[in-house]
Amino acid sequence: AKRSGRGRSVVYASSLGAASRRMHTVEQALREGLGQGQFELHFQPKVDSHSLRALGVEALMRWEHPVLGSVSPGEFIPAAERCGLIHELGALALQQACLAARDLPGLSVAVNVSPLQLMEPGFVDSVERVLVRAGLGPSLLHLEVTESLMLEDAQAALRRLHALRDLGVQVALDDFGTGFSSLAYLRAFPFHTLKIDRSFVRSLSEHNDARAIVSTIVQMAGVLGMRTVAEGVETERELAIVREICCDEVQGYLVARPMPLPKLKDWLAGRPV
Ligand code: C2E
Ligand code: CA
Ligand code: CA
Ligand code: CA
């Protein structure tokens, strides 16, 4: 790279400049946006893989900025984590999700929780307060965490997960298959649910070995008493394979996209119960 000449390094430096300007813009806008109610949850159904009956929803944060337009969570969640606003944004998601759950009788509501937020002192108490205020049974709240949580301070993370379990909320391991999670982790951590990442699901219809691997994961999760969810199911063929390997639940565009609460209620009303 040192030998790449002046021209290339200049291009590199200026595009780096643009990226860091964008980062700065987004972080500034986050601060304002939180104060101005620009954030709203959308909800994506999770269904039983055989009956296709709705079992719950995952809450996904959406941000519509008056100038920047819609900014994806893939961009603003990491930005919020960098500038410390993830706690406020996370609390907002938790509140909105628990309030929405009152409108969705019998369905669980899953909220994504950043490791920074989960490890903050007082997190478990704040979850309890939100549940009480919303009058929501703890077992209807599911929290989705990624394995990055376990990498930093596994003992502290374990204590936190047990405290949540004691409270009665369910915890799901998200994006399984994208990182380094091993069998040892799954045995040691008290997850209720394993969510198999969509990159794995995608490879199901393409490679036989992928099917064997995912099938083994599903069986293993069963032995450990965990439910399994296939994420990002987009085709009938993927659904058929997911059923074949006995994965419990399905989430993905084939069933429904994430949508605002009123639209979700219409969608649910048109479904067999
Ligand atoms: P995730 O938790 O893995 O959420 C699933 C993502 O996959 C969502 O993207 C969803 O819209 C998308 N998806 C669902 N079904 C399909 C499908 O069939 N095909 C494809 N291609 N995609 C599908 P989204 O909403 O853009 O969210 C991206 C990520 O941002 C989430 O990934 C999650 O990690 C994070 N995120 C979203 N909302 C929150 C939040 O409130 N708090 C935190 N901490 N993170 C959030
Ligand atoms: Ca998730
Ligand atoms: Ca996921
Ligand atoms: Ca993800």
UniProtKB/TrEMBL annotation:
Residues in EAL domain copies: 23-272
Protein name, entry field: Bifunctional diguanylate cyclase/phosphodiesterase
Lineage, top ranks: Bacteria, Pseudomonadati, Pseudomonadota, Betaproteobacteria, Burkholderiales
